[in-house]
Design a protein that fits this description.
23% of the residues lie in helices and 23% in strands. By secondary structure, it is an alpha/beta fold. It has a 44-stranded mixed β-sheet that branches. A seven-stranded parallel β-sheet has the order 3-6-9-12-15-17-19, with no helix packed on it. A five-stranded antiparallel β-sheet has the order 66-65-68-67-69. The longest helix is centred in the C-terminal third of the chain and has 36 residues.
Amino acid sequence: MPHSRMKGCLYSFILLGHLYSLTVVAKDLFPNSLIDFRINGHFKYNDTTEFSSPLNNSISCKDLEGFGSFDTTCLLKSNLFVKSDLYIYGTGDLEILPHVSIACLVEGCSLVFNMSGNVSLGQYASIISGSVVLSATNLAMENYSLINTTSLAGPPPSQTSGTPAGYEGDGGGHGGRGASCLKNNKTNWGGDVYAWPTLAKPWSYGSKGGSRSLESKFGGKGGGRIQIQVKDMFYLNGSIVSEGGYGGQIGGGGSGGSIYVHAVKLKGYGVISAAGGMGWGGGGGGRISLDCYSIQEDVKVTVHGGMSIGCQRNSGAAGTYFNADLLSLRVGNDNVTTETETPLLDFPTTPLWSNVIVENNAKVLVPLLWTRVQVRGQISLYRGGSIVFGLSAFPVSEFELVAEELLMSDSIIKVFGAFRVGVKILLMWNSRVEIEGGGNTVVTTSVFEVRNLVVLRERSVIRSNSNLGIYGQGLFQLTGFGDAVKAQRLSLSLFYNVTVGPDSLLQAPLDDDASRNVVTKSLCESRTCPRDLITPPDDCHVNYTLTFSLQVCRVEDLLVHGVIKGSIIHIHRVRTVIVNYDGLITASELGCSEGLGKGHYFNGAGSGAGHGGRGGSGYYNGRLSNGGHEYGNADLPCELGSGTASPGSSYGPVVGGGMVVLGSIIWPLLRLDMHGSLVADGQSHSEVTLNANGSLVGGPGGASGGTILLFLQELMLAENSSLSVVGGNGGPLGGGGGGGGRLHFHWSKINSGDEYAPIATVNGSINKRGGAGDDGGLYGEKGTLTGKRCPQGLYGTFCVECPIGTYKDVDGSDEGLCTPCSLELLPNRANYIYVRGGATQQSCPYQCISQKYKMPNCYTPLEELIYTFWGPWPFALLLSLFMVLVALLLSTLRIKLVGSGSSYAESSIEQESHHHFPHLLSLSEVRGTRAEETQSHVHRLYFMGPNTFREPWHLPYSPPNAIIEIVYEDSFNRFIDEINSVAAYDWWEGSVHSILSVFAYPCAWSWKEWRRRKKIQRLQEFVKSEYDHSCLRSCRSRALYKGMKVGATSDLMVAYIDFFLGGDEKRVDMVSIIQKRFPMSILFGGDGSYMSPYNLHSDTLLTNLLGQHVPATVWNRLVAGLNAQLRTVRQGSIRSALIPVIGWISSHANPQLEFHGVKLELGWFQATASGYYQLGILVVAGDYSLGVGNPHNMHESDFSDGSCCELLRKNATYVGVSLKQQSHAYTSHALLRKKITGGINGGVINEATLKSLDFKRDYLFPLSLFLHNTRPVGRQETLLLLITIMLIADVCVTILMFIQIYWMAPAAFLCVLLILPLSLLSPFPAGLNALFSKEPRRASIARIYALWNATSLFNIGVAFISCICHYGLSSFFRPEKINTRKEEDEWWLLPTALLLIKTIQARFVDWHIANLEIQDFSLFCPDPDAFWAPESLS
């Protein structure tokens, strides 16, 4: 039957899809046939097909016993069997009813249905023939309907070998080869394939199977041909089969036929099968091509090979299933096991196929010498599928596979020759790619160029026994256990990331010694360093001339969780290498079998090999074998480790360590993170060595360690990680240990100085030891560990900074180059410090032990000032000169403004006191006091109390006897109430005084003096103007307000009221009473303190009163002398201080006064309830005789009022004088009466009563040890100059101490400054005020200056306490450092100096005050005659 001509146009686009292969066995129709299908081919199709046939072959619907017409609708209801070709043509529809068959069982018989309408086959309807052609607009095949050409094939194309020759019962071939069960069959298959060019539109009969007997020439028959042309929809729920025939036990199965289906849409659940037939040897699958725009996935297509009865695991090869619309070829064997391949011949280049899929145990062979397999989509191998490129007998072919993706799952690609792969994605799951180069170096390097992604999972392996290069631009990942890439030489390059997963492997060379020797032979006997390891080429291609065995080149990041293993591993132009904790890069036991430092085996003694260290000598039965010698360059090693000789050929070599080179001089690694291991150890020999007769002999020595050469910028060697070039251990019975290898760090960039950053963090181990010897064998020497020469300041292998306190000013790595810095250049209070990049000069950098010290000399601010002026002594000298000059200037200025000390007016204390407070004096003190006032004076009534805020002045109730006649007692008592209320202080005055006493005592004293002055003024104003004098009997006195006058001593300590007669008294005897005023009690002013010394206040009134008996000159001289003695009496030591006064009265006063009928006695007066009493004198005048009775005994009732004594006895706090112990008495009855009626309560103080005199000390008593009144010393100008110098020294040392304490601690500075507030600074202005003040208050201002000076001692005490606390705590929390001088060694100097200055200053001020107050030195003359000489002269 002639073939029809077809025309058409190519669809404008190609759909990509996944094609599925399923297996269906038509048990009901073909129980012995296994239906298989496979995709193959690419073809263009026409929309219409014209068939030509002789007219006499055309029949009508009625001829077929049907109803209707072919031009309308023809219904076939009965079976039709023909014996020749049948041609049916019509423009209508054709419907073959259920259970109707149209069959032509003649081989090669052709049935043609050319209908313009629709064609349908009902259930169980069938069309059976050797060749079936069906054309329709729509075709529908119901369930169990069938188009079948199985075992009805006509003759195959001529000049094909599909039918096997001979009588082995081989299967026939077509789309796949027939199986052969003959084991010695050289071809290993039966019938061969044919009709490859018509893959896209197959139209060939299947071949017959071979026979096993001469009686039958053939086995099973081949499958026929089926062509279906559907313009639109093809519903397939039945079966279309063209399978090979059954060959049985005596013949091979026939091969599957050809099936071509063209439709726009193919839907249904039917089966399309061109499987090979079962036989002794199974027949090969046929060819199926589907040219459909849309194929429903439930359609089952099978082209598997037929089962082999004679060899069940070698069925016929799968046929081809080609999707002509998608241009996709599928070869699947439906998981039927076979060893027979399906050859794929030349692949089209225009247009390219989209996909090639090999699956389900199908085996594909690409047998050509050079073949390019190129598709536009995927090449996929699934579920036992395999592709074999080339022939095993001729492994010199070159194959190229080009696709978008290469996907492999449980499959194998085996290549005999060279293999070049160009894909975007390579994914392997439990698959293998095996490249067999046949050991022929002429074979070109195999190359995998995968642009995006390479992932191997589940024990996937790529293996080549020749050179292999894998290039890409994306990710290369060996996922986990069993994943491996192995080759003779291996190169990975151009990837963004290379990940070697856990328990995966990159290896080159292979495990056999021959593969290792090919790589290492040229290097083992060479003494020159391979240039390509130091400066490799840029192309990163595999080249036979290159030295490496495994190369990773031009990769961004290399992450190692598994193993990288090779003899010569070169990783360069890689940015970062990270070896995880379970990762390993190893060249151990992959070096030289012999080498330059090989170990020897001599007379049963085996020595270790040498490399970085000499190998250990072997020793056996007294025989010694020297170890291998060292070789190579430690500063740039690039040698393999050496092996050792073995006792005989039956023992394998002991192999040295290999070489690992990371980076290169031009392209170093940026960073190496090592958490796992990087090793190049030598091999150890552990087996017992036997002689030929079975006796023991000495074992061979251990091999030497290899080389690790690292070109990098930064290293991180984590804990439990290791770098190792250890020598191998010697064998049993005397084997020597191998020498250690060489490890070198060639740092590409070592920043120094301020740009320095650590280049290595080493927490793991670096091992270069030699191997151990056994039983007398010596240990191998350790290898070398070197680094690039370090710049200045750095040392060691890892170029770390020289230790603190050392410097390095030359290049080199030796630790000894770090020279200790000179301690002479290190200041005290300084330590050498860390400096970035290490010290590079002899003057090593240092830092003060605290930031408080000032660089560069680590001085305190005070020391900085001192050493600015060349040190302590020059500074002290200059400061002293400065103080003297300033003092001279101030003295000169003082003399010009105030005058010299010699110009001061010479006056007594009394005279000076008269000018202190003139407004406090009574009228009796004013010059020109009238004589009648003196005559009319009756009595001086003293206020009681110390005039303090706690105990102000007050007058006792009941008028004394002396004035009882001139006052009204009731009115007087009311006057006492009023004046006592005036004398009392307000509460706020005492509060202010208390506050000032705490913070600034001199201010408190000034406040108290001011309030006292205001108080005496208030008393005077009250008596003079406000009080009506109603208590006086004299009308004249009441009218003129002249009967009473208030006065006070100059120090405001004693106040009194003078009572005068008015002149109009009625009693005649009053005058005689007033005139007899003696004995007279005169109270001392002051309280015995520094600010208020005791003094006798003698005003004009007293002078005039006493002038009746004693001349005024004598009395004034007496007062001056007594005051000179009283000024040194201190209240705190009153008992001892009054002894000289009592003696002076006895030796100087009374002898002179007795000449005038007057005598003085020292006494105490006016004791108060608080225990306060006043001192004074008792003046006895007149013609009173002494010595009556016991002259030294006076009773209490004779001396004072009983009421006063009773008050003293009742006061528990009063420590008064027991008057029973007073021994001084007066015999004059007139005197006794006088004292009883008008005297003041008190007692006489003499040597007998002095011991019982009590006194109280206040809280300021310690100041009396520092401040006390002294005798004058003269030399006033010199003394003022010295005070000025001390004042300047005080302020200078104070400022220096403030600087020191503020530097020490601001808190301590505030404490010293503010406790008490500003007391350290106040003496200076107070001193200037005292120096430049004028009369009459110079002495008082000087005392205030002294008081400020004494108060500042408290601040000095605070300074001592603060310093002790500070330095005590700092010593506890901050232990002393080496080569430091702590500031606490000298902190006490300035406070102590200031204390000394203030002490001297206080003494000078005391002398200055004494000079001001007493300018007549004769007042202290111990000779009474000399004392009274000035008076006699006057």
